[in-house]
Structure formats: structure tokens, C-alpha cells
Amino acid sequence: TYDPDNSTLFLVCPAGVAQPGPVIYKSTGELVWADPTLGGCDDLNYQTFEGEGHLTLWVGSGLAGSGAQVGSGFALILNNQYEVIRNISAVNPDNTDLHEFKIPGPNNDTALLTAYNPVPLDLSSIGGPVDGWYLNSLIQEVDIATGRVIFNWSSVDHIALTESFNNITISKTGTSQANPWDAVHINSIDKDSAGNYLISSRHCKTIYKISRNGTIIWRLGGHLTDFTPIGNETFFNWQHHARWRNNETQISLFDDGAAVLPGEDVVNEVVASGKFLIVDEAAMTVELAKRYLPSPSKFVSCSYFRALTEPYGDTVVVGYGLHPWVTVHDASTQDVIFSAVIGPNASVTGVSNYRVFQTSTDVFVGRPSAPPSVAIVNGNTTTNNTTTTIYVSWNGATHVASYTVLTGDNSAAVERKVVNVPKSGFETAVSVSTESLSAYVVVEALDAGGRVLGRS
Predict the structure, then answer these.
(1) 0.90 exceeded by the pTM?
(2) Residue 116 and residue 59 in one domain
(3) Which InterPro entries match (predicted)?
(4) How many domains does the chain have?
(5) DSSP class of residue 343?
């Protein structure tokens, strides 16, 4: 049975909702934490920084599934009290893009970031204007403590225009700084143990391995692939979230199979899926290891995704971007063992989520700095209403097992116990006799061992 102890947490940033912001859910759908004050976000994750686990995310303007499909904002690191402790930015006029914020090991003290910047360029060789504009894809590794750029790489300096599958004659882009041609569209960065970089270029349908001096070591996929396929299903189209796996012998990715481009919708495959590819850098061959298909809609044309494939323990979680679906698979059998929707269960509904990550309450302990929230209704004996209902919630607290209602005649001594009830969902309703309450009421949050975690 999946998640028998209800410890799994899903980290998401839903877009297209009334109050966008980072959200954590349990596998039951119960809300754990939400903070709309941070605004539109992407890539909520749990990563190691300074030797400890932290929440990380991107905040800013832009949306992965609409418009230019890039963003301008900042990367944030939060502690387990949900307080921002670091604000990181790429060194770029348009700040940091939404697609990637990874803190690589082993030191976990730098940030891998994507950024975009339109630059003037002659695009006549591929059917564009001579005085054209090119959307330059940047990757940067930034020292988190100082903000110093350790590594800077740009697509315009290394990737030929002819590698792109984004047809400029159809898109009618590249005509101005406000309408640049997005030839490459980098959407993920990883780093190997030797210090080389792995980047995913959606619009070139290529994964590039880049050396520390910036040269391209090899290409996987696209027009100029350096690898020979073994067997079927090694191809991918418009992919996202390329990551090294299994001691850098495999690459996981999300094979979108389709794309929304300016002027056209492209469908190359009938279904999107997560894939693990065996990459033999000595023999220069690639072979499919695992493929994770969506369910129950596996035969629907899953177009226009922006998503990820991410292992967690003995499972693999797959998110589907513009389709608000999440599936969890048995890593070995590839079977779907859990599925959920973040918005209406339809194709493109307006609710989307760029990436979804898993963690658990065994790993992440949320300890909000704010106290539990309490609201009291009814409790007016003059109208013969003899029951008072106390509503209590604690946004972000991951380990509350029960609540105790205390009362007292003055604010300095609210100590008489009225009742203890199990926590029930994000907000717990506690009904008590109005006559059992004195002038002051306090609610304490307790963990499973009876230890007081917080007090209203």
C-alpha cells in the first residue's frame, strides 16, 4: 500500500489559481502549508544547503506554460520555519528564469540557475531577419553566500542556429527585442561528479554535456546526436528535467512528445512519459531502461507538458505540467501505485504545475514561527446556544497529532484543560460546552508523544 503511515509530502506551485503560491500536500490531499504572500512560484523542492534540508523555490513573473514560457524572478531558500534565509539571482538583466534552481553536491553551497536575455543577431541564415533578435539561453552557477558567478554559459556562443526545431518562419519571431526567437530554450541543469554540466534544450530536442571550460562534450538527441540507439523508445521530443541517475550511468527525463510554439502546436508522440535512459559514454550508445506512462489517461495525446520525472526511494514521481496530474510509480515494475490531480481532471484546464517533488515528514519537519490560528464561533448562552465551536489550524506544522483546549479567567493563567482532540485535516473543529469556557481560551498543538509544539 502506498504511503501507509501518511508521511509523504508533495511540493507544488499551482498556477492558474486564485491565490498562487507554494503549497505542500499530504498524499490524502490534506493541505499542510500554503503561502500566497510569496506569489507566483515554480520548482518548490527540498534540497540540502549548509548541511541541512531546506525548502527552495523560484518566485517571480512568467509562466512555464504560456506566453514566452520563461520567467523573471529570484531563487529563494527557506528554513523549516518557512522564513526566507537566502535570495539568489543570476547575474542577468532579466534576473533568474523559472526553469531551474538546483543546489548541487557534494558541497551544496552553489546554485544552478537558468536565465534568458534577448540579444541582436543576424537570423537570415534560417529564414529570419538580418537585424534579428535571439533569446539567449544562459546557465549560471552562483555562489550562494557571495552571489559570485562561478560558471557562465550562453547558447548563442555554442549552439548553431540550425540545431533548433523552433521554425522561425512559422513562429514569426526574432523581429524585435520584445519578440525574440527562442532557438534553444534551456529548461534544466545538472552537474556531474567531475564538474561537467548536463543541460536540456527543449527547442533543440537535445541533452548537452558541457565541460567546465564551456565546450560541448557530446549531444544526446536532436539533429546532431553523438549516440547510437539500442532498441526502441530511446528518442524524446521537447523534453524537460534531465538528470544524471545511478552513478551517472543513466539519465532521467520527461519526454513531452509535444510542444506549444508560437504559430503552431506540435505533436510528435501520442503520449508523454518519464524515461530512464542508459547512457554508455565509452561505447556512445543509448538504451531505454525504464518508461513511466500516465494512468488512467495513457492513451490520450498528452500534449504541451512541462514536467519532471524524479525518483524518491523505491518510487518515481511524474508530474505533467499543464495537465494537473501527478503519478507515482513503482520504480522497478513501472506500475502506477498512486495518482492525484492538482486541478480539474481534464486536459488543459487553466490550472497547471511545472514540477512536483516528494519528501516526507520523516525528513522534513515544519515548525512555523507563527502560532496556531484559532477562531471561535457561537457560544452565546443568552440565545440558548450552549455549544461553542473552536476552529484551529497551524499552517505548515507537519507533526501535530492533537489539539488541547485550555481555558482560564485571566490571560496570565489559562491552564484548565477542557478537552484534547485528534487533529482532523488542515483545520480541526472542536465542539465544547459554552459553560465549560472561561473568559480566555488557548489551544495547544501536541505531537504524537504528547509534547507541546505550539500554543495560540
Answers:
(1) yes
(2) yes
(3) Arylsulfate_ST (IPR053143), ASST-like (IPR039535)
(4) 2
(5) S
